[in-house]
Please model this.
Amino acid sequence: EPEVTQTPSHQVTQMGQEVILRCVPISNHLYFYWYRQILGQKVEFLVSFYNNEISEKSEIFDDQFSVERPDGSNFTLKIRSTKLEDSAMYFCASSGPEGDNEQFFGPGTRLTVL
Amino acid sequence: GQNIDQPTEMTATEGAIVQINCTYQTSGFNGLFWYQQHAGEAPTFLSYNVLDGLEEKGRFSSFLSRSKGYSYLLLKELQMKDSASYLCAVPLNYGGSQGNLIFGKGTKLSVKP
Model:
C-alpha cells in the first residue's frame, strides 16, 4: 500500500541553525501539507501546497519557514533559524486529486532544538 | 474562525461500546474528520462525514448533525489496541483551499481489561 515517508525520523539541532525536513508524498497525490504537534498538544496546520505553490498557510508559518518541491517526488520544509519553541513532531501529509477527503500522514520527524 | 471541543480523556472496558463526542463552530462547513493517533505515531484516517447521519465502518461508526454542530465517534467491541487519542478535525474553509485541517485537542481513550 502506498505511504507517505519522512526523513529523518529524529533531528537534533542547535538554536539558530537551519533544518530541512524531507517528505515523499504518495506518488499520484496533488495536495501536500505540513502539520506540527508540540509534545502533549494538538496537531496544528502549518501550510498546504498545490500546483507548485503555497495555497494556504497558518499564522505559525512565518518568514522563518519555507516549503519546496525540488523535484517530482520530494516535498521539503525548511526552518531557517530554529528556536527552542520549534521543538515538535512535524508531520507531512498528502491527499489525492479531489484533495478534500482523506489525508495520509507520514510517520513524522521529531525535531529537538537545543 | 474554527473551534473544536472534545473531552480530554475517557476510559472504557474491553468489549464495551464507547462514544466520543465532538462539537464544533466553523465559519463554513466542508465536512468533519475523525483520526486515530497512537502515542508517538501519526494520525490515521478513520472517517469523513459531510452529510447528516450515521456512517458505519466495521467496529467504528461516525455520526454528524450539521444543525447542532455535533459529531460523535462510536467504537464497538473495544479492544486493547483501541487505546489511543481520537482527533476530531474540520477543514479550513478558505476559497478554493483543499482540506487544511483544524484539529481538536483529541480525546485520549484508555481501554481496560
Remarks:
- The CA atoms of residues 69 and 75 of chain A lie 5 Å apart.
- The radius of gyration of chain A is 13 Å.
